[in-house]
Amino acid sequence: MTDTAEPVALPAAPSAPGRQRMAWRPVWLVAAVVAAVHLAVAARYGWHRDEFYYVICGRHLAWGYADQPPLVPLLARLAAALPGGVLPLRVLAVAAQVGCVLLAPMLAAEFGGGRRAQTVTAAAIAACPLFVASSLLFGTTVLDQVVWVAVLVLVARALRLRTTGSWLAAGAIAGIGLENKDTVAVLLLGILAGLALLRREALRTAGPWLAWVVTLALAAPNVIWDAAHGWPNLRMAQVLAAEQGGRLGSLAQLPLLVLLAGPPMIMLWVFGVRWLASPAGRTHRWVLVVAVVAVVVFTASGGKAYYPAPVVAGLFAAGAVWVESTWGRDRAGGWGSVARPIGVSALAALLTGLPVLPVGAANAVRVLNPTVVETYGWPGFVQQVRQAAAALPPGTPIFTSNYGEAGALTILGPVQGLRQPVLTAQNTYALWGPPPGRPDVALCVGEFGPDQLHLAWAEVTEVAPIRMNGVHNEETNHHAAIYVCREPRGTWAQVWPALVHFD
Fold this sequence. Notes:
With 503 residues, the protein is mainly alpha-helical. It is 58% helix and 6% strand. It is globular and about 75 Å long.
């Protein structure tokens, strides 16, 4: 990462500096560039299947759903009620990304980093593929990131101020975060481990424990809902872990964490690890414990590679402090060797994480990030289903294989004149239960095999394969098609258990 001939060495460990004043001007400049770039392409393609799902869940307000707590569905419902189609949801996603860009430098300031360290931290977050790609669409992941970074900042602040109020703020954000995604529990476990190992004096005060009370109180409604419905969130976690191969699959995907953090910037967070492990970073070493706990717990539980990724914000901040303390006066050498990798990572993240390429090019590089092309082709999908439905009696129900297809038909269908009831039995849709009556004729759409549909209907006729305007996504990869199904094997209530699936 450095172009100097001398080997990089850790400087003599000074005493850890106190919190520095925020250099808001360069930090806000980075945030403004991020907002401008993201908003310029925010609605270039269209909806993502998960965004459809969040909006539909939000129309069925509850304290929980089969695969998530209630915060994102609620916000998605409110955003979708505004004019602009998917754009208001994307504005929320961009706001979360900007929040990360603004918060991470605050962590660098808590570490004692000055203007340059804060600017480098903001730029690193802005260029990190994980943060860029997650803000392509609105959902639990992008909100989870801003919660993790905010909690890290507030805990660092609470440890410095040693006031009950500062701890309560951290607990409140953590509790709100748990109403978005259960992964925040692992962050809290890591913080508890870090404090127990390295900042035990904090646990002798009331602040952290009162913060836990606030967190648990805010998280309680979702926990109660989950318990009352047989713990579907736990069941979903087990299903998702099994789908990627459990612990071994999670371990095999660990190298993906490096790609998500941005390979060109790997030395920055390596420097962060070294600084936190050195005497200079001793006061803030609990952040390193959080990172280790997050990686170990998510790997041991079969979690996805991006689950622990938000902790790189703490490593970026620590690495920037190390760089500032080492190369503070070397403008041509050290700082250039930081800026260039950040620039390369930003370009790569932009090309693979946002819809800036033509559709054909994005489709060609989908192996790097399939999410981009997953936001393309849904209006054509709806049109194809509408044409098939026109040949059937009015009011014929449409049954889809997944929530993305159901959501597209529900939200985009009325614009094209599609008025039929739309059903699916995946995840939370399954908990909402079957409609009344008997499905004498149904138009089934999606990733079904004829044998699956024969569990509910005796006669299954394929009409046409699903086409997604030339892109490859879940539907085309799994040979999704349109079927006309007749001669049901019972009422909706009787065939529903054979159709339910959680994945």
